[in-house]
Amino acid sequence: MLQYITRRLLSSIPVLFGILLVTFTLARLIPGDPCRAILGEKATEAVCARFIQEKGLDKPILTQFGIYIMDMTRGNFGESFRLGMPVTRLLLERLPTTVELSLAALIVSMIIGIPLGIISAVKHNSWLDVGTMVWANIGVSMPVFWLGLMLAYVFSLLLKDTPFWLPPSGRVSPGIPDDTFYEVWGWIKPESGMWAATLEFTGRLNILNSLLTGNWKLLKDSIMHLILPTLALATIPMAIIARMARSAMLEVLGQDYIRTARAKGLRWHSVILKHAFRNSLLPIVTVIGLSFGSLLGGAVLTETIFGLSGVGRTLYEAITARDYGIVQAFTFVIAIIFVAINLLVDISYAYLDPRVRLD
Amino acid sequence: MTAETKPLTKLDAEGLSLESVSMWHTTWRRLFRRRSAMAGLVILGILILIAITAPWIAPYDPTVSMLDADPPQRIKARTAPCIHLLGCPEDQPQHLAGIDGNIRDQFSRLLYGARLSLMVGISTVGFAIIIGTILGAVAGYFGGWWDNAIMRVMDVLLAFPSLLLAIAIVTVLGPGLINALLAIGIVDIPIFARVMRASVLSVRETEFVSASRALGGNNFHILFRRILPNALTPLIVQGTLGIASAILSAAALSFLGLGAQPPTPEWGAMLGAERNQVFTAPHLVFYPGLMIMLTVLCFNLIGDGLRDALDPRLAHAS
User: What is the pTM of this model?
Assistant: First the structure.
């Protein structure tokens, strides 16, 4: 097992290199002159020449790539010219929103999706199965942006002045104290470095932060703001997970060893959980891993609709505005998170199915 | 469904006779017995019909503003739907889905939108499935160096959120429907490659594959005649979701203004153009989204039915 994990870790180095290559190339392939895109249409030739020299854009492309790799591995993500601030700062500011949203959506979709899938497979063709699958089919067919807008319409406009009203946008209502846990606990945050970044990042995870500081007002407000985006974002993964769980369970339940297990008198629920569910986990885990893609992609849309300044929306705005610094750094960081998740999925394969380890 | 519960169906009888029944024939028959799959086929049929007959059944031109029409009509932008049957005064012109922000008949635009969505879903997934399946099969079957090389490239592609990668590719290629399709196709390849590889891995070590190899079957024969048919079921399930997600992604790109450009009547673009009016003119957001959902839904229903119909274990089990 350890050997397998080491091998997988080593084999993700080329992937990381590939990601660096892709982000580097993408940022240079985006059409348009970087100087004019960053400094504006009115930049003169002389200004542009100096800009290009300063940014090292006149060096050979391989040298540029080398410098780029060195910078990235040191966590030096450069500056956003449009917003005039270091990209690392921006990342620390925007990432927590997205992390909170995607984690909430993933947890909701797993907690509801997996049991629904198992139950409908076990009660195959019952009204419960049919109902779940009709619902799952509708859920998986739902455009995130449409669902988000409709949810906002229903819960913010139609249900106004009822207890079910939910805020249509933003992360926290104005005026609610959101002191971070390290301020409340009297910890001193260093000026810069890993520890400062960690503190800042965790401090911006509103729900965690409000739990740590016992700030119930902030907790309630954050959750209220999070419900609609989470619902919009979780619907598709939830439906996909439920479908895959059902399909995988049906596949396994048709196997001979299930019949054997039942025939030797094991209790039905232990057959389902220990024999069937564990063997159907492989495709379920795959689909949960892949769902992360739709989650972060969906985050662009959800964040746009619900007015959240998260990573997805920032990246989308940066791509359309050709803000190279943000594009490179944000894509890189998101990609790193993805590689880590893919790695986890692969390792869980080996854990779940010993045959995979032996190849 | 009811026929399946009988101990011996007509199919078995046919199977016992000398007349051979092809897999696709039985699949087709089983598919027809499923209500959800039938519902999907009916919706798809209606959508195809709408797509073909749009020029004849659409009451107005989908791209021309009524201010420019002859004679010019004095209608306010974003008027709510006016349906005579539901009590809209007879003296007002009927607009089943209301008027959009550029004073065009929303209903006509919705009808024309069916053409684009169907084309989008089928072409992108076709492209992604062909390439993804071949790559995944080669990686899973040959293992070793092949597996590493192919799956690392796939991992790099998968390492980006699909919509963000599609957005990035479209930004490089330039906004437009064809570029959006290409981007979505490329982004979808790894999904099929992974599914294919996973099922090849699970089948590769089974006895019938070893038997086929022992009997002298070459790699090509084993891969395409022995393994591929057994990997079809997950591929079809994923393929259905693929068409769904392709249509959704294309709509999302158009929603963000990177796909179909105005005045093309594309549902995602129509929704995106009016998204800030959701509180004042919800009909302009509701109907295009509903159409996207129905289109995606019908592919899901058909695929789900196909999944059950294609699985020999389910044929007589339930």
Answer: 0.80
